[in-house]
Amino acid sequence: MSTSIAKNIDDLCQEKGVDREIVIEAVKEAVRAAAKKQFKSGEDIQVDWNPDTGIELSASKVVVDEVTNAAIELSIEEAREMAGDEVEIGDALLLPLPMEELGRIAAQTAKQILFQKVRDAERSNIYDQYIDKIGDLVNGFVKRFERGNIIVDLGNMEAILPRSQQSRGEQWNQSERIRVVINNVSKESKGPQVEVSRTSPELLRRLFEMEVPEIYDETVIIKSAVREPGERAKIAVTSNERDVDPVGACVGMK
User: Which CATH number belongs to the domain containing residue 184 in this structure?
Assistant: First the structure.
């Protein structure tokens, strides 16, 4: 069973690009919630991960002289029968609970919690990966169209190209290669996290950086860029070297 659970965790980590420890913690939290739903007598539920046996479910009980709450307390006599005479009042013992007793509803609860936790971790990874790339030029493929928006496949995730960020006159086909700039990255729990643009002035900047060596090596600097997408665009450039004509470097010598 442990091997099966461990393999499922490894497969999930590889598929979602999520750290293994995060998935294990998500599994533990999911099982804990399911167990509390199943065992409703108020036990202090503990869930641990054992590399050899997998998930271990137990109830923590405090050793007392006289039991007043059987859900969280254990008499000194019972405790010593279970763990030996060295047990003292005030100690806490972990009593194993059978995983098999988790019912269908509890298992479904665990599945839902696990899915949400992994999804949250996945979105956090995407946010961390792309938040510093705002303004960067990226390549993708047109994946599908949704109510005027274009969903762009960036390889490891989907981004949204809203209608408002599309250039007039441009038409795209499914599976067509597309260049866009990262416009915004969100931590919202629904919908695509990364918004891309074809109208941002940053697209113009990045294309000039690719095509003009003097801009790429910062001999020529773009001071500002403005666009009327689909109509016209202007950039203001300056040179860091006296003998380099910034305009000529961008459009060719007169």
Answer: 2.40.50.140
Pairing of the two strands 44-50 and 54-64? antiparallel
Do 194 and 185 touch, CB atoms closer than 8 A? yes
pTM for the full predicted model? 0.64
> Which residues span the domain enclosing 103?
2-129
Please indicate, yes or no, whether residues 83 and 188 belong to a single structural domain of this protein: no
pLDDT in tens, 100-110: 766 666 667 76
Helix ranges (DSSP H) in 131-218? 201-211, 213-216
Lookup: tokens for 173: 């086909």
Query: Which are the contacts of 213, defined by CB distance < 8 A and separation ≥ 6?
Result: none
Cα–Cα distance for residue pair 85/203, rounded to 1 Å: 74
Instruction: With beta carbons less than 8 A apart as the criterion, state whether 72 and 44 touch.
Output: yes
- 156 plus 240 within the same structural domain: no
Chain length of the chain: 254
Beta bridge partners of residue 182, listed in sequence order? 196
pLDDT at 160: 93
Distance of CA 210 to the CA centre of its chain: 30
